Amino acid sequence: MNLPSLKNDVFLRALLRQPVPYTPIWMMRQAGRYLPEYNETRARAGSFMGLAQNREYACEVTLQPLHRFDLDAAILFSDILTVPHAMGLGLDFVAGEGPRFAHPVRNEEDVRKLTVPDMGKLEYVFEAVSLIRRELDGKVPLIGFAGSPWTIGCYMVEGKGSDDYRLIKSMMYSRPDLVHQMLRINAEATVQYLNCQIQAGAQAVMIFDSWGGVLAHGAFQEFSLAYTRQVVQGLVREREGRQVPVIVFTKGGALWAEQIAETGCDAMGLDWTASLGKVRKQVGDRVALQGNLDPMVLFGPDAAIRSEVRKVIDDFGPVGNGGHVFNLGHGISRFTPPDAVKALVDEVHTYSRRMHAE
Amino acid sequence: MNLPSLKNDVFLRALLRQPVPYTPIWMMRQAGRYLPEYNETRARAGSFMGLAQNREYACEVTLQPLHRFDLDAAILFSDILTVPHAMGLGLDFVAGEGPRFAHPVRNEEDVRKLTVPDMGKLEYVFEAVSLIRRELDGKVPLIGFAGSPWTIGCYMVEGKGSDDYRLIKSMMYSRPDLVHQMLRINAEATVQYLNCQIQAGAQAVMIFDSWGGVLAHGAFQEFSLAYTRQVVQGLVREREGRQVPVIVFTKGGALWAEQIAETGCDAMGLDWTASLGKVRKQVGDRVALQGNLDPMVLFGPDAAIRSEVRKVIDDFGPVGNGGHVFNLGHGISRFTPPDAVKALVDEVHTYSRRMHAE
Predict the structure, then answer these.
(1) pLDDT tens track for B165-206
(2) How many Å from the N-terminal Cα to the C-terminal Cα in chain A?
């Protein structure tokens, strides 16, 4: 397979803390419902899974934000729940309610039945990666991703989103052995899944530990971080003669920044509650930082967006050997006016280019 | 007014970091829906507001958990939204949906109309405090409480609970002057409200900054912490010849522990993501700590509850001059089996008494 080589590698260089001319930016959920063209494609696809499982549609929506905005990376359009879906849990997206599993994991028998799925069942994802790489034609790097073992485990047990995680935490405090067994399987599946994405052409990968932050101190280390580390350690880190950087994002994880930095990842994603400058002092030069504008800033006027962008860049501090990838602290809201993103991207590039020149 | 004097002051002493024979415990939302007798009283009252606005009912449910469990403090049964209700926003509790305001604060005109309410409109709260004090007959201290200016502001603008705080954050990033104006009024109202509770007999007060943790680093300091500090600084701190300790609880606030400790409060509440030992090292002996068991632990078996209780107590570390009040990291879940609370309270008392004797 002959994949086009990269024209803009600023994002990859920043993740590896190599010199860059400006701070690169991409946005979590950048291919999403705030874009009318996304909603149009989704309507054609009929459903979320119809979109995610069709490589042409997945490619189309992945590229949409790049046509509008001067972003420095593309991210595969997919979902973290493709893995448990391939395990046979029966994923469905209920309108207005989000994801739901037909067969959640609720007891010992359910856990015993779990196995690492055949990666052939996820071929649609890897085909999308290859197609997107070809269509990107080297414009910017393509990010692959997966949920952390704990985060997909939350959905597998709860069966859907939750506001208290009562079912998985009940299991965790009653039968920790079952939860560990599920997380071991999730970790092995996630290693294989991300390595297949890398094999197919993903140039960086991100692990979304979206729900690690709901755990108690102590439980986070045991049930989330330990398995995220297993995934990081199992990944292929070089491909096409380049390093493939790994980003770990734990929502609400700033309290545990030093431990997350020790998983072996190249970069750590942070939400808006963190001070990039403070975390940088804690983790030193071990990892790059990605983040962390509050997505709600994009509901302010142009001047406020630009001022908040500068605060984040200033908080990160002197660019030195880089190591900052600008992003939102969480996914972009579906209600965001697309023009706000224009101001965001422009300010990140303009302001940071000035700082890098200094 | 001649109020009964205290028989058990372990809770107050721990808040003031004075020697105690064991670690005291109470639970956020201890008078609540997990108790069948609460649901019975609520059914008689007809509605949540019917319960909160009737001093006999409020007194009855405040005392219910003390009949069942050996708790070291009572907390006034009320709601943080009584203050905006008194401002004329029209609070209602919609079944299955939680609180809702008929007249939320959405624009400049709405903000201009806001004023500090006449405390006479909140007389039902102060009467409940006095009645509960008499009925408690000095068994344990009574805690009064209020929401932080930011937290009640979130509800005032959103009109109800929110998962992204889009309306108040949009206003905050577009018209920070309006949000500051609202927060100034909320702070002044909260000072008066808590001082009236203290005047009526509250022996400690707690400020719930339940939504401070949704703010970005920087915005938290400007829009939440600054006004919490104003409230703390405005409070009457002595009554009936005793200090009236002030507890500040910011959900998700452990990242900012040092700054919260500097508000002038006597104690800081922490959720389960914090390590009490780590926070204690950060804040030294400036404040006592309250927390921080994950309420979901109460869905585990007896042995797991006891083991997790010991972890929290061990994490706090050597008792020295005390300074630990045991609590959950957030309100108790309505689905909690009451017997789990028995194990919790017993283990806190038994295990900590051994540690205090050493």
Answers:
(1) 999 999 999 999 999 999 999 999 999 999 999 999 999 999
(2) 42
